[in-house]
Amino acid sequence: MNRLKMCWKFTLVLFFTYFIHLHCFSQCKQDYSWATWSNFKGREATGTIQVNGRPVNVTMSANYEFGSTDKIYGFENFSSYSGVAAIPNTTVPKTEWVAGTGGQTTMCFSEPVTNPLLLISSLGSFVYSPVTLRFSEPFVVGFNGPGIKNVSSYSITGEEGYAILLFPGTFTCLTIFSDTPENYTNITWGLQPPIFPVKITEDSKSCGSTVLTASGGTSYRWSGGKNPTNATNTFEESGVYSVTATDANRCTSIALKVVNVPPKVQDATINKTICQGEIYEGYSSSGTYKDNFKTALGCDSSRTLNLSVIGLPQVTFNPTNEFCEGNIVELSPTITPNNLPVSYKWTTGETTSKINVAKTGTYALTVSNGACSKSFSTTVVVGKPPELKPNETLCFSSPSMVLDAGALGTNTYSYFWASSNTTNPQVTIFQPGTYTVKVSTLGGGCVTSKTITVLPTPQVDLGLDKITCEGEAVTLRPNVNASGGSINYSWSNGSTGIETRVSQSGQYILTATQGPCAGRDTIIVRNHPLPNIAREVTTCNEKPLFAAENDDSDLTYLWDSGETTRSIQAQPDGIYRVKVTNQFGCSLLRTITVSGPCNPRFYVPDIFTPNADGVNDSFKAIMVGGEIVSLTVYNRWGHPVYFEQSKDPQWDGTFKDAAAPNGSYVYLLQYKIQNSESISEFRGAILLER
Fold it and tell me: CATH for 459-528, among 3.40.50.300, 2.60.40.10, 3.30.420.40, 2.40.50.320?
């Protein structure tokens, strides 16, 4: 109540002070220039004021949309204002002050201005409701027309009200705050520098008083204080004070000052309620707190704080909720304790404790417990199921093999192999079977499963590589380990049985197929040569017997007689055997036939006398170690004169039943050596003499 009386007292003082100021206008007339408005753009408009021939722009911007009227509504209500003739009744802003709650209108000038005037026309309504405006700077009323109900230093209320407000001081921007919408109000601005500037300075502050000094005039009249007619004045109460200064020409100018007076002793009792988690004056728990302290100016102060803390339930949310597209997830937070009366408000507008959602986004829940509320949020991610390669059927590769989940794309997933509790994209297995992997998005909302069937593969073992000797054959037969089902065999040499017989060197591959799975093994067959000797030979009984034609250090020998040398002494006619073995262990049995002397011998005369005396009358040859086949005799011109094919041929010295001439003749004996059918020749010369 005391504060209200002080405000009314201050308002009356301002009114009478400003009345004196207006009286001085008769001697010190001061005309204001008013804005011409243009460029209305929904939430902004621009006006231009000509001040001493120089344009000053004023920009009006708001957090709501406003328009304009082509003249000032109810302009006749300003007819008693002394400066009305200078006010242009043309296009001005038309504002509804607020769309909803919290309207804010800012007026900014292109340069600092002093003592601007604000004209307000048709503020509030008789029919609907009064409208109150609050200002960021203090003012005095320059014209108090009809419908103005309440006025303070910072606010004005109207019911179809008309007023002109003066804002003493120098400003660049002023802000008007409004809470009540109305049909519309017209406003405009006027400027004119003061006749002379008035300055108020703060000299000092102490406990219970503040000292101000005004300058710029010759005499002063303050709206309050202990010395209201002095330039220097002492104030013992806080408030907004004005000073009207008069110069030597009896012209007046006014200035305002907000005065804060430090109290001598501040004893306060504060009843405060806060929400859990908040701190007030350093306290966060319910209780009564008494504090004594000194202000910055050394004033004693005491405070009793009765603090009540309202508890709020705690809400536990999963920070992220993930689910697959096409599904719905329930957001159901855990609330503790759950027996408190609370209300719920989701950002979706729902008021239940849990909701169902189907879209990606951040969802916030505000939990309210009377005066206190707290918000919690969670993120919902709608994902797509992991894309995997199709189910697979594989053949087991002993002793182990690696299975891959087969995730496609570049996304990161989590994995779970049920058979081994493995959480990697791959798993190592050691036996055939059916293996299932679950692939999930990282939030676990989307899961795709895949099955990999691993069939047994026939295990084929052909054993160690084989070594054979030339002419020998070896049977290749595998050891096959397979479980159930028929097995098909395929050898690299074309055989299709479980075994194959080979005699050639080379690599042999067996593929054993059981269903879609095939096992294989490879074996090398090395076929070494036999000793490079003749298996059978014939020789005479005068030479040593040799097991091999050449002296080869890689060969070993074993005769029937037990001897192990390459050769043995000459033997009588007969058959002899020796086993010859090379470095590869391959052996050959050599048979040696010994028959007769080594070389045939001929006993042939070099002259014969066919003169019928019974002595040396014919030419004949005697052979040892063989058998004569034929005899041919040639004269000295190479013509045959005698031929006989028999074992014992002889020539009687005639040619064509006549005695052949004496002379030298050439003979040719054809023969076969003992135990041979091969024909050989023996040549020589014979002299015929009668």
Answer: 2.60.40.10
